[in-house]
Amino acid sequence: MSHNTFGHLFRFTTWGESHGPAIGCVVDGVPPRLALTEADIQPFLDRRRPGQSKFVTQRQEPDQVRILSGVFEGLTTGTPIALHIENTDQRSKDYSEIAERFRPGHADITYELKYGIRDYRGGGRSSARETAMRVAAGAVARKVLGPEVRIRGALVAMGGDWVDPAAWDWAAVEENAFFCPDRAAAVRWEERLLDLRKSGNSVGAVIEVVAEGVPPGLGAPIYGKLDADLAAALMSINAVKGVEIGDGFGAAALTGEENADEMRMNADGTVAYQANHAGGILGGISTGQPIVARFAVKPTSSILTPRASVDRQGQEVEVQTKGRHDPCVGIRAVPVGEAMLAIVLADHLLRHRAQNPDAPSVARLPRN
Amino acid sequence: MSHNTFGHLFRFTTWGESHGPAIGCVVDGVPPRLALTEADIQPFLDRRRPGQSKFVTQRQEPDQVRILSGVFEGLTTGTPIALHIENTDQRSKDYSEIAERFRPGHADITYELKYGIRDYRGGGRSSARETAMRVAAGAVARKVLGPEVRIRGALVAMGGDWVDPAAWDWAAVEENAFFCPDRAAAVRWEERLLDLRKSGNSVGAVIEVVAEGVPPGLGAPIYGKLDADLAAALMSINAVKGVEIGDGFGAAALTGEENADEMRMNADGTVAYQANHAGGILGGISTGQPIVARFAVKPTSSILTPRASVDRQGQEVEVQTKGRHDPCVGIRAVPVGEAMLAIVLADHLLRHRAQNPDAPSVARLPRN
Amino acid sequence: MSHNTFGHLFRFTTWGESHGPAIGCVVDGVPPRLALTEADIQPFLDRRRPGQSKFVTQRQEPDQVRILSGVFEGLTTGTPIALHIENTDQRSKDYSEIAERFRPGHADITYELKYGIRDYRGGGRSSARETAMRVAAGAVARKVLGPEVRIRGALVAMGGDWVDPAAWDWAAVEENAFFCPDRAAAVRWEERLLDLRKSGNSVGAVIEVVAEGVPPGLGAPIYGKLDADLAAALMSINAVKGVEIGDGFGAAALTGEENADEMRMNADGTVAYQANHAGGILGGISTGQPIVARFAVKPTSSILTPRASVDRQGQEVEVQTKGRHDPCVGIRAVPVGEAMLAIVLADHLLRHRAQNPDAPSVARLPRN
Amino acid sequence: MSHNTFGHLFRFTTWGESHGPAIGCVVDGVPPRLALTEADIQPFLDRRRPGQSKFVTQRQEPDQVRILSGVFEGLTTGTPIALHIENTDQRSKDYSEIAERFRPGHADITYELKYGIRDYRGGGRSSARETAMRVAAGAVARKVLGPEVRIRGALVAMGGDWVDPAAWDWAAVEENAFFCPDRAAAVRWEERLLDLRKSGNSVGAVIEVVAEGVPPGLGAPIYGKLDADLAAALMSINAVKGVEIGDGFGAAALTGEENADEMRMNADGTVAYQANHAGGILGGISTGQPIVARFAVKPTSSILTPRASVDRQGQEVEVQTKGRHDPCVGIRAVPVGEAMLAIVLADHLLRHRAQNPDAPSVARLPRN
């Protein structure tokens, strides 16, 4: 992780601004001879795309991905895979005001203080548009992980209103506009978002991502821990302010007795974990249980209410966002979170294989 | 971040097991001609040291640090600084049972599944003892940051019992055995820990770390974000299950209006932020406000209550921790969290300086 | 250096195959507010371009570079700069035979053994075409270094025929088709290449690259040495088999007395080095003298003479290259070598500045 | 490669100065369950050690290595291996003069210009003493490579006097004080070194290192090439000024016909390469042939003849090295070169395995 590159062996580098000619990424370190076409990537992009419902920004972009390298006759070659999306909806005229004024809660002022220059159009590099390339890279990562590893995500809280775990249904996630696994909550959220939309206000959210079928052994002491890399991956998503694994902050309120994930044996020689408070990771290494992580997304900073701010010259001004408005950016973060989880796992799968080629793919005992 | 090395320019590598002859680290990338002696590091180690109160493990280690390289006549030379602590209290006899049995909540089973071998004595590499070297490296990082940057930490919740923000007094932190900033909470916690100690149970905790005087501009898009690196740094600490910046998970329950950190100007040309919901970081880059982060530590996994588990041969067994017992490992994590915050900031200070040598050290406008 | 990414702070990642739709690179870590347009890059690409003389491959590519990100209103923004060149001359029909047969001296067989698949058209990823992106990134690196640093290169030997150092004239380099600094040698070489062209044979070459105006202090012990990074950079160029700094292999034949670069003082307080056997680098760190490096390029492996080889099925075959033929690939390596030198220096300039912001930009004594 | 760390997956970090209390390294990324004790490392250190013949520095150091972590009951555990050597022969009094005066050809002046401070005693960090830790790490790398990979080195030229390839006998290497594979050359060299010793002068050398049994497929395009990493590894050794692979600079004088390594098939389905001009690497990837590299070491800079120089204050002075004198530092570089070759191969073996777990271990066709 540094600059605009993420990962150690499975590694991707993104580039592009919201209103430049295109955005793209280079995915490197992919094993050869994996079947890969644009059709493997496009569905994930479509799922993240703004404009698919009334609750996310009405930017109309087809987000059509092209593979420019690294794939030959439908198979990966082991060389870098360049992915490319043209920016077709660049309404630069909407953004003239924010050239000089810093929107509270946005990166405008920090880019100015750091670089002394910024591409202010649509947020430039700090736009959530960058996350499209994470989703594209995530689709490639899923290929590396193979079909045994299943990665899904859901919105589990919106503005403090949580889903009911007892009502969780993965099928529901694809039925509503919020990736909400609880049908009753989805109804409540819809109402709330319509209100927020009218008032020009916004609201935060919490997303949960889960990976099933992950082999034990991924991750490593001490600064290559799976959960540490996952925390960085999720925290790097725009507007994310918190990350937790398993019981997370809830674990801080438990006793050691309550928190212990006891173990028994299955008949097939695999470990039967009795609970998963740990979220599938112990000592930075996967246990073979589902990896469970949640992250908190702050409310959209672009709101219609005028806010006190300052401009580049140090004058006090008011800033009011006009044009497109997204009452809950957290919704779009669901596919992005899934992608980052896939990317971290793919990277660690390769790293693990390098050092431990004969490690078991399930939690079987005795190991040898 | 990978393997046992953390950081990009300011970088440290730790080594050593709980019951090996020594533990150590190599701190690399330190600017030259900084005054540094063991006396600059030892106080931070003493603060973390087990055995200083009745509420942390009774291991008696002087944890005397030695500088073996990189310092000449009391000044850093720009070459790697090797720090070394002998392990003097190695009661290997206590640990014979856990050679074969996996303690629930510990890394025993994941090390076994990954490596097929582990130094089981006292947790080996996964022991919290490794964090002593983080604290030592953190002391060097503070030197790099200079006296303008002030880094402090406190325990803000124990077992779900939170401190009262209104009662916060930094002076209190040094007065009790828990780094607790709320004197009334410290009294409650003492009682609770005595109970847990008797019952052999344990409890989780939340730590808050704060850095004041941090220049704006630290951190960078997109995978070199300050908060992403900080999330990885804190999540890499033993037993940590969650990390948040500023309002963190609380931000997910706010509206955009509530969450906006509005801005006015101070008379001296610096930005007067009206709030700090963002925890001092916007778009992955520091704003010049205090950096505020919290992290959740799960309850100590070593408890006296017997738990169901399995052994290396795949047999079902019971495991009960004997010997030293630490009812709340979160307490010791306070100095470790401070150290990791210092390390992340030192690394990003160098990275920022490399690319932006003329950036301002305070949030002044206009920038130029 | 790993995968398809080079550099630590100034860092670039290349992608693309010879006969894919495009090639490109992402240049990351560039300081903000440097003036940069395509016109700053294009001349360097034109200089490297095949087809400009009768002695290099007759591939007709305009190699028109586009900047797709990281530049706003003519200035760098500090975010990643994506550079893009369409592949317009893709005669895929020429390459059907080499799909199955391994050309001796080429990477055909090693890609097959490593990946089990390769884009064989025109060499795919292993084509010298990739070096166009190095040249493009090198143009950006020159911007980072600024006008004080002057980087030039020349062909100093072709097929064992060396230039006369006494006849060296930098102006001559731009006058002939070989980047030859010795006008008499250029005449000899022209004759020789015409012969080789007729016979379908090829010849190796040696290139010298020189950087003047480099500040002292670039590079660092022990595995961040300037000469080590430069060696990797030059050795990574296609067909390079040797790299040397200063007197290089010649130094191995000298005595210590002969090899010493003695020092006196200039009137202005700077060091007057009496010689530069060291090639401007001592202990891995620049002295402030010109950096001088040479690298050896093997003869073009694609020749018209049939050679014994094998195919993918393990059958013995004969291979004869048809179509475009380049009697001395070393010629085109001159601008590539310059680019890699610029890139290494730009990276180390940033790295040096991070750790030593107050180091002098010339070899002045006393230092402070 | 950066700072004091080398390698990507198999990675080591060295620390320590010539006259500090100790030197050491941390070897990280080692696969678990390899048998490893000090006895596996010590013989390589003994081979490099000064003081074993009259032709290398008479420093008397036992160079006794200790393993401080990462090995449990004689087996590696997958965690970092700390290696430690006490400095027992620290004659600090010999070095008082060079505190102020810069020795020509040494890193004294570049450390001063970069850092403004240096541990001048015995060269401090820039001392060849650091190479002991490379040799130690190299011994661990050999374990990772396994017994199939055989790595050897020899001195092939001293002061321009080359060995006769026809007289090469690996057995001779261990019989003389120069690692010389040509018994006649060894006799000539002995005479020459006695003369140089008397006159206080010194001489350069060329070392060849060879690895047999290396699987095909190690290395990767474009900036992870095996030869590029090897070039960096060898160039990072003290006093090295040139590196070449296979025919190296000689290849630049060949024609394409001469340089082609033609291929036939062996009866067992492996490729029968007819020559090895390429030194076992094509396109940055190993072919399965022996890896052959040579590097040039400049003459020892510390000579008894007075040389013109300057001091820290910018005064012109004369410098004459007193005390221990090593007429050919190249001799000791033989085991160091072997170690660096082993380290690069071990790193690339792990990297290759991560991406291509099912690649063949010999050059067999058809691959699948």
TrEMBL record, chains A, B, C, D:
What GO cellular component entries does it have? cytosol
Q: Name one GO molecular function term.
A: FMN binding
Which cofactors are named for this entry? Answer: FMNH2
Matching InterPro entries: Chorismate_synth, Chorismate_synth_AroC_sf, Chorismate_synthase_CS
Binding positions for NADP(+)?
R48, K54
Q: Which reaction does it catalyse?
A: 5-O-(1-carboxyvinyl)-3-phosphoshikimate = chorismate + phosphate
Alphabetical keyword list: Amino-acid biosynthesis, Aromatic amino acid biosynthesis, FAD, Flavoprotein, FMN, Lyase, NADP
Cofactor note from UniProt? Reduced FMN (FMNH(2)).
Give binding positions for FMN.
Answer: R125, S126, S127, N238, A239, G283, K298, P299, T300, S301, S302, R324
* EC number(s) reported in the record: 4.2.3.5
GO annotation, biological process: amino acid biosynthetic process; aromatic amino acid family biosynthetic process; chorismate biosynthetic process
Q: Which PROSITE patterns match?
A: CHORISMATE_SYNTHASE_1 (PS00787), CHORISMATE_SYNTHASE_2 (PS00788), CHORISMATE_SYNTHASE_3 (PS00789)
Record Gene3D superfamilies: Chorismate synthase AroC
Give the pathway annotation: Metabolic intermediate biosynthesis; chorismate biosynthesis; chorismate from D-erythrose 4-phosphate and phosphoenolpyruvate: step 7/7
Biological role stated in the UniProt entry: This reaction introduces a second double bond into the aromatic ring system.
The similarity annotation says:
Belongs to the chorismate synthase family.
Q: Which NCBIfam families match?
A: aroC, PRK05382.1
Q: How does it assemble?
A: Homotetramer.
What is the name of this protein?
Chorismate synthase
Gene symbol here is aroC
